[in-house]
Predict the structure.
Amino acid sequence: MSILTYITQAEIRDAADELDGKILTRPALLVTDGENLIYAVDVDIGQKAPLKNVPIARGNFDLLYADAGNACRLRRSASGQYEVVGFSKELPGTYTRIAVDLTDLSLGPIEDITISARPLGYGELADFGGYGMVPYGAVAIFRGDTLLELRIP
């Protein structure tokens, strides 16, 4: 592809006002001034790295009960930052990468690069330091089968 194609794709992506994403963590308190509470979540939008600490829009109390793996709708604010404004009907898909050798047209191994999040099961809690080291409700974030991060509530 030409450089003009890359520039055009970047402009279209940056001009998007609303995106669909996947919530990776449970809502956590980001900021408070004593009266107002702002909660935030991590969101996967299909880019290389997920968005961290995306605030939940004010007055949207349904999203405070969102769990890891829920589809969400993001809207770009006037300052250029995204905020979660509601649940979405579309969920980002599965992303795979296949290496291709162009000299002999052979295919390499298929690599799953999908980012997914889920609460750890009872049996998996014992794998991370024994009983009691990781509390119930911990959320694991994976890229394919590789553990990226462990979020403890």
User: Anything to note?
Assistant: Residues 42 and 52 are 5 Å apart (CA to CA). Residues 16-87 form a domain with the OB fold (Dihydrolipoamide Acetyltransferase, E2P) fold (CATH 2.40.50).
